[in-house]
Write the C-alpha coordinates for this entry.
Amino acid sequence: MIVPVILSGGEGRRLWPLSSSIRPKQFLVLTGEETLLQQTTRRLSDPRLFAPPIVIGGAGQRFLIAEQLRAAELGVGRIVLEPRGRNTAPALAVGALLAAGSDPDALILSAHADHAIPDVEAFRDTIVRGVPAAEAGKLVLFGMAPSYPATGYGYIEPGPPVDADAFGVARFIEKPSAAAAQALVAAGCLWNSGLFMMRAATLIAELEAHAPAVLAAAIVAVEQAVADEDFLRLDAEAFGMAPSISIDHAVMERTLAAAVVKADFGWSDIGSWSSVWEAQRRDDAGNATRGAAVLENVTGSLIFADGPKVAACGVSDLIIVATHDHVLVIPRTADQQVRALAERVDKL
Protein backbone atom coordinates (compact mmCIF):
# COMPACT_ATOMS: atom_id res chain seq x y z
CA MET A 1 0.00 0.00 0.00
CA ILE A 2 1.15 3.51 -0.83
CA VAL A 3 0.61 6.23 1.78
CA PRO A 4 -0.29 9.53 0.04
CA VAL A 5 1.03 12.66 1.72
CA ILE A 6 -1.11 15.53 0.47
CA LEU A 7 0.53 18.95 0.83
CA SER A 8 -2.16 21.57 1.34
CA GLY A 9 -0.32 24.53 2.80
CA GLY A 10 0.05 26.99 -0.09
CA GLU A 11 -1.67 30.35 -0.55
CA GLY A 12 -1.89 30.54 -4.35
CA ARG A 13 -1.25 34.28 -4.65
CA ARG A 14 -0.82 33.97 -8.42
CA LEU A 15 -4.58 33.33 -8.59
CA TRP A 16 -5.52 36.56 -6.83
CA PRO A 17 -8.15 37.89 -6.30
CA LEU A 18 -10.05 34.59 -6.13
CA SER A 19 -7.34 32.80 -4.14
CA SER A 20 -6.20 34.36 -0.87
CA SER A 21 -4.58 33.43 2.42
CA ILE A 22 -8.08 32.96 3.86
CA ARG A 23 -9.23 30.64 1.05
CA PRO A 24 -6.27 29.44 -1.04
CA LYS A 25 -6.66 27.90 -4.48
CA GLN A 26 -6.76 24.27 -3.29
CA PHE A 27 -10.13 25.05 -1.67
CA LEU A 28 -11.62 26.55 -4.85
CA VAL A 29 -13.56 24.98 -7.72
CA LEU A 30 -11.31 25.94 -10.62
CA THR A 31 -11.65 22.84 -12.81
CA GLY A 32 -14.43 20.26 -12.83
CA GLU A 33 -17.12 20.23 -10.15
CA GLU A 34 -15.01 19.76 -7.00
CA THR A 35 -12.31 21.79 -5.32
CA LEU A 36 -8.72 20.91 -6.12
CA LEU A 37 -8.27 19.44 -2.64
CA GLN A 38 -11.30 17.20 -3.12
CA GLN A 39 -10.11 16.11 -6.57
CA THR A 40 -6.62 15.32 -5.24
CA THR A 41 -7.91 13.32 -2.30
CA ARG A 42 -10.39 11.41 -4.45
CA ARG A 43 -7.79 10.22 -6.96
CA LEU A 44 -5.64 9.05 -4.02
CA SER A 45 -8.47 7.14 -2.35
CA ASP A 46 -8.52 3.84 -4.24
CA PRO A 47 -8.17 1.29 -1.39
CA ARG A 48 -6.65 -1.26 -3.80
CA LEU A 49 -3.58 0.95 -4.15
CA PHE A 50 -3.54 3.60 -1.44
CA ALA A 51 -3.68 3.66 2.33
CA PRO A 52 -5.74 6.51 3.86
CA PRO A 53 -3.95 9.77 2.98
CA ILE A 54 -2.10 12.05 5.36
CA VAL A 55 -3.14 15.66 4.69
CA ILE A 56 -0.72 18.36 5.85
CA GLY A 57 -1.97 21.95 5.91
CA GLY A 58 -1.85 25.20 7.81
CA ALA A 59 -3.44 25.46 11.23
CA GLY A 60 -5.62 28.30 9.95
CA GLN A 61 -7.03 26.02 7.23
CA ARG A 62 -8.04 23.17 9.53
CA PHE A 63 -11.79 23.65 9.27
CA LEU A 64 -11.68 24.22 5.50
CA ILE A 65 -9.81 20.94 5.07
CA ALA A 66 -12.11 18.98 7.35
CA GLU A 67 -15.33 20.47 5.97
CA GLN A 68 -14.40 19.92 2.33
CA LEU A 69 -13.37 16.32 2.93
CA ARG A 70 -16.58 15.62 4.86
CA ALA A 71 -18.71 17.29 2.18
CA ALA A 72 -17.16 15.04 -0.47
CA GLU A 73 -17.42 11.97 1.80
CA LEU A 74 -13.67 11.46 1.62
CA GLY A 75 -11.87 9.80 4.51
CA VAL A 76 -8.23 10.41 5.42
CA GLY A 77 -5.81 8.88 7.86
CA ARG A 78 -4.71 12.10 9.54
CA ILE A 79 -4.99 15.84 9.13
CA VAL A 80 -1.69 17.31 10.31
CA LEU A 81 -1.54 21.02 11.14
CA GLU A 82 1.55 23.13 10.49
CA PRO A 83 1.82 26.05 12.93
CA ARG A 84 3.56 28.00 10.16
CA GLY A 85 4.56 27.34 6.58
CA ARG A 86 8.11 26.01 6.17
CA ASN A 87 7.95 24.85 2.53
CA THR A 88 7.76 21.25 1.34
CA ALA A 89 10.84 19.58 2.87
CA PRO A 90 9.73 19.90 6.52
CA ALA A 91 6.16 18.90 5.60
CA LEU A 92 7.32 15.78 3.78
CA ALA A 93 9.71 14.95 6.60
CA VAL A 94 6.70 14.91 8.94
CA GLY A 95 4.73 12.76 6.50
CA ALA A 96 7.60 10.27 6.20
CA LEU A 97 8.02 10.02 9.98
CA LEU A 98 4.30 9.40 10.53
CA ALA A 99 4.13 6.79 7.75
CA ALA A 100 7.26 5.00 8.98
CA GLY A 101 5.89 5.02 12.51
CA SER A 102 2.95 2.92 11.35
CA ASP A 103 4.85 0.78 8.83
CA PRO A 104 8.67 0.82 8.58
CA ASP A 105 8.44 -0.39 4.96
CA ALA A 106 5.82 2.14 3.87
CA LEU A 107 5.97 3.75 0.44
CA ILE A 108 4.91 7.38 0.46
CA LEU A 109 3.64 9.47 -2.44
CA SER A 110 3.81 13.24 -2.10
CA ALA A 111 1.08 15.14 -3.92
CA HIS A 112 0.19 18.80 -3.98
CA ALA A 113 -3.44 19.53 -3.14
CA ASP A 114 -3.70 22.22 -5.82
CA HIS A 115 -2.76 20.30 -8.98
CA ALA A 116 -5.22 19.21 -11.67
CA ILE A 117 -5.00 15.71 -13.19
CA PRO A 118 -8.13 14.89 -15.22
CA ASP A 119 -7.34 11.26 -16.15
CA VAL A 120 -7.41 9.45 -12.81
CA GLU A 121 -6.97 5.97 -14.31
CA ALA A 122 -3.86 6.99 -16.25
CA PHE A 123 -2.52 8.69 -13.12
CA ARG A 124 -2.86 5.51 -11.06
CA ASP A 125 -1.34 3.35 -13.80
CA THR A 126 1.68 5.66 -13.91
CA ILE A 127 2.11 5.55 -10.14
CA VAL A 128 2.15 1.75 -10.27
CA ARG A 129 4.94 1.88 -12.88
CA GLY A 130 7.08 3.77 -10.38
CA VAL A 131 6.67 1.26 -7.54
CA PRO A 132 9.56 -1.11 -8.45
CA ALA A 133 12.13 1.69 -8.48
CA ALA A 134 10.78 3.13 -5.21
CA GLU A 135 10.86 -0.28 -3.54
CA ALA A 136 14.47 -0.66 -4.74
CA GLY A 137 15.48 2.47 -2.82
CA LYS A 138 15.07 5.16 -5.48
CA LEU A 139 13.46 8.54 -4.94
CA VAL A 140 11.07 8.45 -7.86
CA LEU A 141 9.96 11.63 -9.57
CA PHE A 142 7.18 11.74 -12.14
CA GLY A 143 8.10 13.85 -15.15
CA MET A 144 5.57 15.28 -17.58
CA ALA A 145 6.13 15.38 -21.32
CA PRO A 146 6.08 19.14 -22.08
CA SER A 147 3.22 20.37 -24.22
CA TYR A 148 5.06 23.65 -24.90
CA PRO A 149 8.42 25.23 -23.89
CA ALA A 150 7.27 26.61 -20.54
CA THR A 151 9.55 29.02 -18.68
CA GLY A 152 7.66 28.78 -15.39
CA TYR A 153 8.34 25.08 -14.72
CA GLY A 154 11.42 23.17 -13.63
CA TYR A 155 12.76 20.48 -15.97
CA ILE A 156 14.33 17.05 -15.48
CA GLU A 157 16.90 15.63 -17.89
CA PRO A 158 16.56 11.82 -17.83
CA GLY A 159 19.72 9.73 -17.56
CA PRO A 160 20.39 6.01 -18.17
CA PRO A 161 17.57 3.53 -17.47
CA VAL A 162 17.11 2.16 -13.95
CA ASP A 163 14.46 -0.41 -14.84
CA ALA A 164 11.80 -0.88 -17.52
CA ASP A 165 10.00 2.35 -16.56
CA ALA A 166 12.43 4.52 -14.58
CA PHE A 167 15.51 6.46 -15.62
CA GLY A 168 18.26 8.09 -13.63
CA VAL A 169 18.29 11.87 -13.32
CA ALA A 170 21.11 13.59 -15.19
CA ARG A 171 20.26 17.07 -13.94
CA PHE A 172 17.53 19.46 -12.83
CA ILE A 173 16.95 22.78 -14.61
CA GLU A 174 14.97 25.51 -12.86
CA LYS A 175 12.69 27.85 -14.83
CA PRO A 176 14.79 28.31 -18.00
CA SER A 177 14.69 31.17 -20.49
CA ALA A 178 12.43 30.80 -23.52
CA ALA A 179 15.31 29.74 -25.75
CA ALA A 180 16.65 27.29 -23.18
CA ALA A 181 13.15 25.85 -22.66
CA GLN A 182 12.83 25.18 -26.40
CA ALA A 183 16.19 23.38 -26.37
CA LEU A 184 15.19 21.30 -23.33
CA VAL A 185 11.92 20.22 -24.92
CA ALA A 186 13.74 19.27 -28.12
CA ALA A 187 16.24 17.24 -26.07
CA GLY A 188 13.47 15.18 -24.42
CA CYS A 189 13.55 16.77 -20.99
CA LEU A 190 10.46 16.54 -18.78
CA TRP A 191 8.57 18.96 -16.60
CA ASN A 192 9.11 18.38 -12.87
CA SER A 193 5.58 17.79 -11.59
CA GLY A 194 6.36 17.86 -7.88
CA LEU A 195 5.01 14.31 -7.52
CA PHE A 196 7.48 12.04 -5.69
CA MET A 197 7.35 8.45 -4.43
CA MET A 198 9.82 6.61 -2.22
CA ARG A 199 10.09 4.50 0.88
CA ALA A 200 9.50 6.61 3.96
CA ALA A 201 12.71 5.19 5.42
CA THR A 202 14.63 6.20 2.27
CA LEU A 203 13.46 9.80 2.51
CA ILE A 204 14.33 9.93 6.21
CA ALA A 205 17.85 8.65 5.45
CA GLU A 206 18.29 11.17 2.62
CA LEU A 207 17.11 14.02 4.85
CA GLU A 208 19.58 12.92 7.52
CA ALA A 209 22.37 13.02 4.93
CA HIS A 210 21.45 16.23 3.09
CA ALA A 211 19.15 18.29 5.33
CA PRO A 212 19.71 17.15 8.96
CA ALA A 213 18.27 20.36 10.43
CA VAL A 214 14.98 19.72 8.60
CA LEU A 215 14.78 16.16 9.90
CA ALA A 216 15.76 17.08 13.46
CA ALA A 217 13.05 19.76 13.66
CA ALA A 218 10.44 17.40 12.17
CA ILE A 219 11.29 14.62 14.64
CA VAL A 220 10.76 16.88 17.66
CA ALA A 221 7.65 18.48 16.12
CA VAL A 222 6.08 15.03 15.71
CA GLU A 223 7.22 13.73 19.09
CA GLN A 224 5.70 16.75 20.84
CA ALA A 225 2.60 16.99 18.63
CA VAL A 226 -0.79 17.20 20.28
CA ALA A 227 -3.90 15.36 19.09
CA ASP A 228 -6.82 17.80 18.89
CA GLU A 229 -10.13 16.16 17.86
CA ASP A 230 -9.61 15.18 14.19
CA PHE A 231 -6.26 16.97 13.93
CA LEU A 232 -2.62 16.43 14.89
CA ARG A 233 -1.02 19.74 15.86
CA LEU A 234 2.73 19.83 15.32
CA ASP A 235 4.76 21.47 18.06
CA ALA A 236 5.07 25.11 17.04
CA GLU A 237 8.48 25.85 18.52
CA ALA A 238 10.12 22.72 17.11
CA PHE A 239 8.56 23.02 13.66
CA GLY A 240 9.52 26.68 13.51
CA MET A 241 13.18 25.65 13.85
CA ALA A 242 13.05 23.82 10.51
CA PRO A 243 14.71 25.66 7.62
CA SER A 244 12.17 26.85 5.06
CA ILE A 245 13.28 24.85 2.04
CA SER A 246 11.70 22.82 -0.74
CA ILE A 247 12.21 19.08 -1.01
CA ASP A 248 13.80 19.73 -4.42
CA HIS A 249 16.56 21.90 -2.97
CA ALA A 250 16.90 19.93 0.27
CA VAL A 251 17.15 16.43 -1.20
CA MET A 252 16.27 15.86 -4.85
CA GLU A 253 19.03 18.04 -6.30
CA ARG A 254 21.62 16.49 -3.94
CA THR A 255 20.79 12.81 -3.82
CA LEU A 256 22.40 10.16 -6.00
CA ALA A 257 19.28 7.99 -5.76
CA ALA A 258 16.84 10.05 -7.85
CA ALA A 259 14.97 8.40 -10.69
CA VAL A 260 12.28 9.69 -13.04
CA VAL A 261 9.26 7.96 -14.58
CA LYS A 262 7.64 9.59 -17.60
CA ALA A 263 4.00 10.27 -16.78
CA ASP A 264 1.22 9.26 -19.14
CA PHE A 265 -1.45 11.68 -17.97
CA GLY A 266 -2.40 15.32 -18.36
CA TRP A 267 -1.25 17.59 -15.56
CA SER A 268 -1.30 21.22 -14.51
CA ASP A 269 -0.11 22.87 -11.34
CA ILE A 270 -2.85 25.50 -11.81
CA GLY A 271 -0.15 28.02 -11.04
CA SER A 272 -1.51 30.93 -13.08
CA TRP A 273 -4.74 32.19 -14.58
CA SER A 274 -3.58 31.12 -18.04
CA SER A 275 -3.20 27.55 -16.73
CA VAL A 276 -6.76 27.78 -15.36
CA TRP A 277 -7.90 28.86 -18.85
CA GLU A 278 -6.01 25.94 -20.41
CA ALA A 279 -7.66 23.46 -18.01
CA GLN A 280 -11.21 24.62 -18.82
CA ARG A 281 -13.62 23.54 -21.49
CA ARG A 282 -13.73 26.42 -23.96
CA ASP A 283 -16.29 27.52 -26.51
CA ASP A 284 -15.67 27.84 -30.25
CA ALA A 285 -14.15 31.28 -29.71
CA GLY A 286 -11.69 29.95 -27.14
CA ASN A 287 -13.46 31.47 -24.15
CA ALA A 288 -13.90 29.81 -20.74
CA THR A 289 -16.40 31.22 -18.26
CA ARG A 290 -17.59 30.54 -14.74
CA GLY A 291 -20.37 32.48 -13.11
CA ALA A 292 -22.67 35.06 -14.69
CA ALA A 293 -20.97 36.42 -17.80
CA VAL A 294 -22.23 37.95 -21.05
CA LEU A 295 -19.77 37.98 -23.97
CA GLU A 296 -20.01 39.73 -27.31
CA ASN A 297 -17.22 39.40 -29.90
CA VAL A 298 -14.80 38.07 -27.28
CA THR A 299 -12.09 35.51 -28.07
CA GLY A 300 -9.45 33.53 -26.18
CA SER A 301 -10.42 34.83 -22.75
CA LEU A 302 -11.14 33.56 -19.24
CA ILE A 303 -13.96 35.15 -17.26
CA PHE A 304 -14.49 34.22 -13.61
CA ALA A 305 -17.47 35.98 -12.09
CA ASP A 306 -17.54 35.16 -8.37
CA GLY A 307 -20.55 37.23 -7.37
CA PRO A 308 -20.71 40.25 -9.67
CA LYS A 309 -22.00 39.82 -13.20
CA VAL A 310 -19.47 40.48 -15.94
CA ALA A 311 -20.10 41.80 -19.45
CA ALA A 312 -17.30 42.01 -22.02
CA CYS A 313 -17.30 43.11 -25.66
CA GLY A 314 -14.68 43.32 -28.39
CA VAL A 315 -11.69 42.03 -26.44
CA SER A 316 -9.31 39.12 -26.89
CA ASP A 317 -6.92 37.02 -24.80
CA LEU A 318 -7.85 38.55 -21.45
CA ILE A 319 -8.17 37.27 -17.90
CA ILE A 320 -11.14 38.89 -16.15
CA VAL A 321 -11.80 37.90 -12.54
CA ALA A 322 -14.45 39.67 -10.48
CA THR A 323 -15.04 39.02 -6.77
CA HIS A 324 -17.08 40.99 -4.25
CA ASP A 325 -13.99 43.01 -3.31
CA HIS A 326 -11.70 43.11 -6.33
CA VAL A 327 -11.61 43.04 -10.12
CA LEU A 328 -8.62 41.80 -12.13
CA VAL A 329 -8.24 42.56 -15.84
CA ILE A 330 -4.97 41.45 -17.42
CA PRO A 331 -3.74 39.99 -20.72
CA ARG A 332 -3.33 36.21 -20.56
CA THR A 333 0.30 36.58 -21.55
CA ALA A 334 0.97 38.89 -18.56
CA ASP A 335 -0.57 36.74 -15.84
CA GLN A 336 2.81 36.22 -14.15
CA GLN A 337 2.39 39.80 -12.90
CA VAL A 338 -0.64 38.93 -10.77
CA ARG A 339 1.30 38.30 -7.55
CA ALA A 340 3.02 41.70 -7.78
CA LEU A 341 -0.31 43.41 -8.53
CA ALA A 342 -1.90 41.73 -5.50
CA GLU A 343 0.90 42.97 -3.26
CA ARG A 344 0.41 46.53 -4.54
CA VAL A 345 -3.34 46.34 -3.96
CA ASP A 346 -2.72 45.13 -0.39
CA LYS A 347 -0.85 48.38 0.29
CA LEU A 348 -3.73 50.66 -0.83
Observations:
- The chain has two domains: 2-263, 273-346.
- The mean pLDDT is 95.
- DSSP finds eleven helices and 17 strands in the chain.
- The first helix runs from residue 36 to 43.
